[in-house]
Amino acid sequence: MAYSEKVMDHFANPRNVGEMKDADGIGEVGNPKCGDIMKMYIKVDNDVITDVSFKTFGCGAAIATSSMATELVKGHSIEDALKLTNKAVMEALDGLPPVKVHCSVLAEQAIKAAVSDYYTRQGIDPTPIVGEIHDCEECSFEE
Amino acid sequence: MIKRVYADNAATTKLSERAFDAMKPYFTEIYGNPSSLYTEGVNARKAVDKARDDIAVCLNAQPNEIFFLSGGSEADNWAIKGAAELGEKKGRKHIISSKFEHHAVLHTLEYLEKHGFEVTLLDVHEDGLVRPDELEAAIREDTALITIMYANNEIGTIQPIKELAAIAKKHGIIFHTDAVQAVGTIPVDVKDLGVDMLSLSSHKFHGPKGVGALYVRKGIRLPNLVHGGAQERGLRAGTENIAGVVGMAEALKESVEVMPERNKRLEKMRDRLIDNLLKIDRSRINGDRTNRLPGNVNMCFQGIEGESLLLSLDLKGISASSGSACTSGSLDPSHVLLSIGLPHEIAHGSIRMTFSTENTEDDIDYILSVLPPIVDRLRSMSPLWEKIIKNDK
After folding, report:
1. Are the beta carbons of A33 and B345 separated by less than 8 Å?
2. Is B382 in the A-facing interface, judged by CB distances under 8 Å?
């Protein structure tokens, strides 16, 4: 198992890392038992994600996919952000080892969770727009 | 170029110069088949015999009790499956082992379970040590084999093998120990230990990879491992890896020679590293501190994940390993760390650093200058750490 140079770059120099104090939406997925937690913060203006940041507990791929996901949604509309797939995150990172694919799923879900929280704060039911958040798919299978 | 500190000597070691030099002639000069009767063959035979003699001396065994194999995993497989077959003939289909054995042992036992054997895995407790009274209590009339590792590959704890082997002997049960992490690292005397079989691997003590041995006490008649020629007393056929066994023997002799001095030095380095890393908030040392290999450091840092710590260390030139799920290739962290009672979330944050004769105090200084800031950085971006701190307040 080896990571691509892009993954290592995003791991060593993560983009948009850190807490956002005045976030409009915060999403958290994963759990400590699995060894991955991703927390995404978004700032929304006129249905556009003007700023985004993350905090992640997890492996190299978890940190790199979080970082890449923030880059892929920053400055884009919520509509576009919800279209972000784990595959797009993986492709942008020049691929991930097979055992790390779940990290990219988590990154996709973390963005959705943040958008979901944003809608909830606006008094809008997020489920019809965002859909269900699949929180750590593999662990829920396990339990 | 950045400084590189190799701190993963439990994974493998650098081939020693002495071993390398001893091996060289056997690739291009003395390349005969030891089974041939002409000069080239005879010279190759002499080299294999001498290697066997040397290894026997290092372990206080007889040369005909040493069988050359491809490595530790093969040795474990043969010892366990062989003893199982011997037991089965007498209607004995129960094996006792421990929860934190190497996979070469655990997966072999799982295979035997599928073939009707029952396996009892002894607890290793929080300190990573098997309790002799618990071994004795687990023995049944149909116990065919007891196999307990000498020193654990992840947390470095050293089992009371002499005491455990004596219990096996008292009950007339074959005792095998996977001593892959012990041979060349700490003194190993098969007669004093009273073991029936012992596995060792060359590349763990600065010998070449792809070669190892099984000590089989005279009187234990293991079934054939590989059918074919008369090599290894007909039990493991195949032309000998001459350069390999020569290198293994030379490396073991060298390791035994330097051992007392080297271990004193390594213990000092190990303890300094552990003491200083324990100053990091919410850190812990895994496994007993006293009954521990001289070069083994295994720690957990709460709130961070082991693989990201490992990768960060690598970026700073330090090679270490981790028991996190992400490095084990499954969702679960290391079975060794779970066996000593660590919860998943703490076991994920483990790092193992293992030192050899190649390492220096400078290496420890360097690790101590690099590692704590990495832990701080990873914690600063960890939502789990944020929760740990919040719950504390």
Report:
1. yes
2. yes
